[in-house]
Amino acid sequence: MKSNLLIIFCFLFLPLCAQSIRPEFKSQGWSDNPVFTGWYADPEGIIYGDEFWIFPTYSDDYSDPAVPPVLSPLQRKLQKNTINPQYLKQTFLDAFSSKDLVNWEKHSSVLDVKDIKWAAYSIWAPSVIQANNKYYLFFGANDIQNNDQMGGIGVAVADKPEGPYKDAIGDKPTGPFRRVGKILQQNTEVATGAGHHSVIRIPGTDEYYIVYHRRPLNTNNGNHREVCIDRMFFNADGTIKPVEITFKGVEARKLDVVPAQTKITAIKVGSRIDVSINDNLFTQYIFSEDEKYPFFFPVNGPSGFSVTSMRNSLYPHHSSLFFGCDRVNGGNYWQEGLERGQIRTLRAEIKESGGDKVVIENECIKKGDTLNLRYRVLVHSGDTKAAGIEEAFKRYVTSDK
Q: Are 88 and 197 within one domain?
């Protein structure tokens, strides 16, 4: 009798639905499906540098309940609009990173409603992108039921992939889109409810991975979803083959780090030329007729702040990058007023742009002298991946009339 009671007692305290973790797959170099523990859905997969990242929706408590969120009065009011108490659990987003698709590190609460003043619940379906040296996270919030309720699609921004992501503004894409067929669906021998996927492509290859959620066979709870990864393959015509969902997942795969290509571009705006590196402003070449000489300002360092100054008092060579010269024939071409001497631009043109360098050709005249000056300015990326500025001078004598 004691034995029977003990069996019943143990049975009652076993989880009614748990994820099937298969350590034998990981020991053989496979990811296993699910790839990490917990009830998660809507996974967004992406590569940042030499790491794989997954940003999923928090679907349900797996073991310990989630920590209750810190809510403002507005957020508490908004939570009263929910049509499902389950949605009140979804007030944050976790993220996971991996070097090889097999071993995953959890980054808790990379986004939290405490940092999104208008979002209160139903933080769903993340999507991420990197641009302008920032990381952007798109998400849905508040599961609005009509246009009078506050909510919709937002975007938060961070300085690094693991956040924290802070509030910003957002938008949503439009079609049209053409339905071709199903590429992902359940397999009653593996899992149900397969869907809401994203795709990772290994840069420079034809290797594609599909990251998706599904429900294990031992549950009918719609919130018990888990994140899985399988390979994606294509037909000869470029269409996607139906995905085979598996238990073992994908083989370990490390990323080869390819140095990011530097793209340097220039655009002429009035009496200046803006030079950008990977769409970030590096410098402006200024050649206004109201200035003493052509010069660069700003010249931005890695921090985004200029390493030169706009006005240089008596000693411009101490803090600026400019194209003046010393006193010649009684004129002063780097100090004092314009009446004492000026290097004035006759013509400034962009000769090269869009690759690893920008070439600017500037033809100048020394006001009050017979000496013209033509030079080319080269803004380039060197071996250190930092931008440099060089100049090549050509002088020629012409009439000052």
A: yes
- Counting the structural domains of the chain, the total is 2
In this predicted model, what pLDDT tens digit does every residue of 180-217 receive, in sequence order? 889 999 999 999 999 899 999 998 888 999 999 999 99
Q: Count of CB atoms within 10 A of residue 25's CB?
A: 17
pLDDT in tens, 78-120: 999 999 999 999 999 999 999 999 999 999 999 999 999 999 9
Prediction pTM value: 0.61
Q: Assign 157 to helix, strand or coil.
A: strand
Reduce the secondary structure of 102-137 to three states and give it as a string. CCEEEEEEEEEHHHCCCCCCCCEEEEEEEECCEEEE
Do 147 and 275 belong together in one domain?
no
Residue 173 reports pLDDT greater than 60: no
pLDDT at residue 313 in the model: 56
Distance CA 153, CA 134 (A): 19
Q: Give 63's pLDDT tier (boundaries 50, 70, 90).
A: confident
Choose among 166, 158, 167, 116: nearest CA to 135.
158
In which domain, by residue range, is 34 found?
18-232
Structure tokens at 181: 């067929």
Between CA 161 and CA 303 the distance in angstroms is 18
What pLDDT shows up at residue 197?
93
Q: Is residue 1 part of a domain?
A: no
DSSP sequence for 240-307: BPPP---SS--B--PPP-PPPPP-EEEEEETTEEEEEETTEEEEEEE--TTSSS-EEEEEB-TTSSBS
Sort 116 into a burial class: Cβ within 10 Å, 0-12 / 13-18 / 19+: buried
Residues 285 and 155 in one domain: no
User: Who contacts 72 (Cβ-Cβ below 8 Å, separation ≥6)?
Assistant: 117
Do 145 and 99 share a domain, yes or no? yes
**Helix, strand, or coil (residue 239):** coil
Q: Is 168 in the same domain as 30?
A: yes
Rounded Cα distance between 236 and 93, Å, is 38
Six token digits for residue 278? 């990977």
Would you give the DSSP letter of residue 329?
T
Residue 73 in contact with residue 116, Cβ under 8 Å? Answer: no
Cβ atoms 164, 113 nearer than 8 A? no
Distance CA 232, CA 201 (A): 10
